[in-house]
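re: ur msg from earlier - yeah i can do the iron/sulfur cluster complex, just paste it... oh wait u already did. ok heres what im feeding in:
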Amino acid sequence: MVPDTAAALVIVGHGSTMNPDSSAPTHQHADEIRRRGYFAEVACAFWKEEPSLREVFYQTTQSLVYVVPNFISEGYFCQDVLPRELRLTGPVTVRDGVTYAYCDPVGIHPSMTRLLLARAEEVAPGVPRDQTCLIIVGHGTSLNENSRKAIEDQVTLIRDGGYGFAEVLDAYMEEEPLVAKWHELSTAPHVVVVPFFIADGLHSYQDIPVLLGMESEPTAALSQNEVFRHNPHALQGRSLYYSSAIGTEALMAEVILDQVKDFKAKHGAALESAIIRDNSIPELPRKPFKLGQVAVSPAGEGTSWLLSHVDDVDATDLRVSTDPLEARSLSIYDDAGQFRPLKTAPTLRHGWKLALTDEAALRLALDFLYPAALGFVRHQAAGTLEPVPLRQTLGRQTGMYRFSNKITDEQAQEMVACHCDAETKCIRRITWHLNPEQPLTLLEENKRPETVPADELPLLCVEACTHIVSAAREIARGGSVAGAHAHGHSHSH
Ligand code: SF4
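and the outut:
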């Protein structure tokens, strides 16, 4: 069996084009697992954020890659979207000499029980369990297919596990039994409510507090602290304790590792043939270079590196950090505090400097600032970059995006020129065509991969991103090319 220290772990999440809360827990669990050093590499990939599901494999260099969906249940995403986008054909897929192990989603692992118990203890410490009702809340309806089953399984496990609760119930936002009727469903004097979601968001901050009666109407002013700090809430003659989403629990990192462990127990024989390749990656040149809006320069004689915004190279009043994880925070908002759903938007914030101790830290920081970019450069040099024509990307969309390929060639050319524009939208250089024999005709010079200045590493685009797919959908539905809201205006579901 290939040891895990010669394997990569990719944690896959939904992500959002609207706010950073959705992907934050996935990144935190990845940080924790990376810190423990169990795997040679730990990366995240998202349906709606970067790196995309396709791109993440350019980022990893190992020949065995475990993929764990950070999803609450099996269903449309885990059974349809993720295998399609990740090009996985079953639990074990071998492609181009790399073995991909597709594990089950975290939410269905039995060890979620441990997390629910820990969460209950955190929000209601010392409250006697024999006077407490634990309610696990899901969305219900088709939005989270099969989440009902995952929740019902947990209710049974906790009820039958002898954990001492007076009652254990499931309840849903949009189907029976309704969470709004929590006081009729339960009889115990203390009630602990845990949302069975991967991340905190509008559901846990606003919708469920209103359904529970904690708030009379959703208020945008509700921050996480306000919602979760005021426990217990005296409501309907009971003490109600409300928790943040179960997916934000630090122990989720253990569940991710448990899914890898279970996969190996079940499919280990199929992994025996995974080959350990020499995956040494070429060293970065020890001279100043630029990647997108980041200036990188070697510091002194040692192995350390300095990074800043290209505009800030000579600035003296920068906020200095030595932590490569800081690069992720730097990439989230622009100078005006607006969320940057596209990391390659020309809006990288100013005023910071990273002083990093070695090349591993540099690579990690650059992967946070520009996900998978160094991997694209490596594959381009090796001749293994596989740009995907736009028609192919649009043609494989399903669900609400399945009509996106109906746009005309002319609309497609204009759309790319408009929505990928380097000055206003995205500084990546496009390597894909409209069709294999049909190049993009309206690209400016700064969007072409062959015109990269000598002191820059190219920031490449190998496949149209989610923003362009959304724009194509709007145009196909009758919108104008310029009017399609490609950046930050599409919904995350
Ligand atoms: S499709 Fe366009 S906007 Fe999206 S990453 Fe590529 S170049 Fe940027």
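cool cool. Residues 252-271 form the longest helix (20 residues). ping me if u need the other ligands too
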